[in-house]
């Protein structure tokens, strides 16, 4: 346990070890840890930003959805109205067409009837003439009796 | 230890307390304790070399297990220094890391059973180098050598003075030596200076003596327990002595783990505190 020159050698060893640590050990370890700390901090900040962006996107998505829903319901209402209108128009048209057809049919029926009546009248007149010919046993001068036949036709 | 069966307890203790000496000059002072120097280099390079290997390939990405462990140790040292010293840790940090690692590694050698060391040195000295039997000396724990602890603590004193100069300038430091703590009155210059000198010297002396004393005493207890083992023999008392020696050596070694860590930590913290104090103005 005597103090001797070992003291100096050990002091030099100590100085060398300190130099070695200052130069080769401390800086790379310090750098690695600092850099990782920075990466973690950056990662946390990015996560925070991502979270905020998500909230913002959700908010915008909700707004867009709401707007779309409103527009869709507007469109639906419009189209319903339009549909009703079209149906109404179609119905009116159909009704008019039907009335027209019915009117035409009626007219035709009326004309047919009139025609049939005329024919019938003429036939009855002819029959009547024929009947009268039979009764009278002689020729009836249609022309001479046209006046009478015309009166008869008018009565029928 | 068959070879030691015929030696006396005094021989045993003396043998374990003697360094391997090499004379390099005139007088007793110019002697080198070769075992202290070699073991200091071996354990210092082993400890710091391991940290260096990790530091060299340290990645900022996900660290491996060894890197995590080294970083944990690094951050422990860094945090300890930060708590004491608010300034830049570019020098004080590595200094603290060096002190802790080196002192711990040197102290750790205390856990190698002393007779294994003695046996190994005997084998190398007697059977390989061919020197006479029982002439081998090898103390495996450099921190049980006052030269090591004083080399470190007086290096710390040098750093205290260096940083005092750096922080206060030569004039400021000298001014403080003569005017603090009592006052600037010329009559008080001598007492101030005497007190500051004592304070300055007490730091490295206490620092070096504390580590040396703790490790030396710890080593001595291992030796005394080894002595107890020497009287072990195939008889009831002998078996009891041998058992007690083994048990107590084991128990003391377990307790010693705490001491070697604590002493390394204390040496580191006090060195940092002293150097941090050198930055303060009175």
Explain this structure:
The complex is a heterodimer of chains A (156) and B (282). Chain A is mainly α and 156 residues long. In chain A, 90% of the residues lie in helices and 0% in strands. Chain A has 2 helices and no strands. The termini of chain A are far apart. The mean pLDDT of chain A is 89. In chain B, 35% of the residues are buried. Chain B has a two-stranded antiparallel sheet. The N and C termini of chain B lie far apart (59 Å). By secondary structure, chain B is an all-alpha fold. Chain B is globular. The A-B interface holds A 1-11, 13-15, 17-18, 20-22, 24-26, 28-33, 35-36, 39 and B 17, 24-25, 28-33, 36-37, 40-41, 44, 48, 51-52, 54-56, 58-61, 63, 70-71, 74-75, 78, 90-91, 93-95, 97-98, 101-102, 142, 145-148, 150-152, 154-155, 212, 216.
Structural class of chain A: mainly alpha
How much helix is in the residues of chain A?
over 70%
The portion of residues forming beta strands of chain A comes to under 5%
Q: Unreliable stretches of chain A, pLDDT < 50, 5 or more residues?
A: none
Report the mean per-residue pLDDT of chain A as an integer: 89
Shape of chain A: rod-shaped
Give the helix tally of chain B: 8
How would you characterize the largest beta sheet of chain A?
A: none
Short description:
By secondary structure, chain A is mainly alpha-helical. Helix content of chain A is 90%, strand content 0%. The longest helix of chain A has 131 residues, at 6-136.
Helices and strands in order:
The complex is a heterodimer of chains A (156) and B (282).
Chain A: H1 6-136, H2 146-155
Chain B: H1 9-17, E1 21-23, E2 31-33, H2 34-56, H3 65-84, H4 92-108, H5 114-128, H6 146-179, H7 189-230, H8 236-278
Helix pairs in contact in B: 1-7, 2-4, 3-4, 4-8, 6-7, 6-8, 7-8
């Amino acid at each position: 346990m005597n103090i001797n020159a070992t003291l100096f050698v050990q002091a030099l060893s100590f100085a060398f070890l300190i130099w070695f640590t200052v130069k080769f050990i401390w800086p790379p370890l310090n750098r690695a840890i600092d850099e990782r700390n920075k990466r973690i901090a950056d990662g946390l900040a990015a996560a925070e930003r991502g979270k905020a962006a998500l909230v913002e996107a959700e908010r915008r998505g909700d707004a867009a959805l709401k707007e779309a829903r409103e527009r869709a319901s507007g469109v639906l209402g419009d189209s319903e109205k339009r549909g009703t209108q079209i149906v109404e128009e179609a119905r009116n048209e159909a009704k008019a067409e039907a009335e027209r057809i019915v009117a035409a049919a009626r007219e035709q029926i009326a004309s047919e009837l009139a025609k049939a009546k005329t024919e019938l009248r003429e036939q009855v007149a002819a029959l009547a003439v024929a009947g009268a010919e039979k009764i009278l046993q002689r020729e009836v001068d249609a022309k001479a009796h046209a006046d009478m036949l015309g009166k008869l036709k008018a009565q029928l | 230890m068959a070879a030691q069966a015929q030696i006396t307890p005094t021989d045993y203790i003396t043998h374990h307390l003697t360094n391997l000496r090499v004379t390099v000059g005139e007088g007793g002072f110019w002697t080198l304790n070769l075992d202290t120097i070699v073991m200091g280099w071996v354990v210092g390079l082993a400890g710091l070399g391991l940290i260096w290997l990790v530091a060299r390939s340290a990645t900022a990405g996900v660290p491996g297990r060894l890197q995590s462990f080294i970083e944990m140790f690094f951050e422990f040292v860094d945090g300890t220094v930060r708590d004491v010293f608010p300034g830049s840790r570019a020098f004080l940090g590595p200094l603290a890391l060096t002190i802790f690692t080196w002192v711990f590694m040197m102290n750790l050698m205390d856990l190698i059973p002393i007779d294994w060391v003695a046996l190994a040195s005997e084998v190398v000295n007697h059977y390989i180098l061919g020197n006479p039997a029982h002439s081998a000396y090898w103390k495996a724990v450099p921190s049980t050598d006052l030269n090591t602890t004083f080399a470190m603590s007086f290096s710390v004193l040098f750093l205290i003075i260096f940083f005092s100069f750096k922080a206060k300038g030569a004039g400021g430091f000298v001014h403080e030596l003569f005017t603090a703590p009592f006052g600037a009155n010329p009559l008080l210059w001598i007492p101030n200076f005497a007190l500051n000198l004592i304070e300055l010297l007490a730091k490295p002396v206490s620092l070096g003596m504390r580590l040396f004393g703790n490790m030396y005493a710890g080593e001595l207890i291992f030796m005394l327990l080894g002595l107890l083992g020497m009287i072990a023999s195939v008889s009831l008392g002998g078996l009891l002595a041998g058992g007690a020696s083994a048990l107590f050596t084991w128990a003391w070694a377990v307790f010693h783990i705490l001491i070697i860590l604590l002493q390394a930590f204390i040496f580191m913290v006090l060195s940092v505190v002293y150097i941090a104090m050198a930055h303060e103005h009175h």
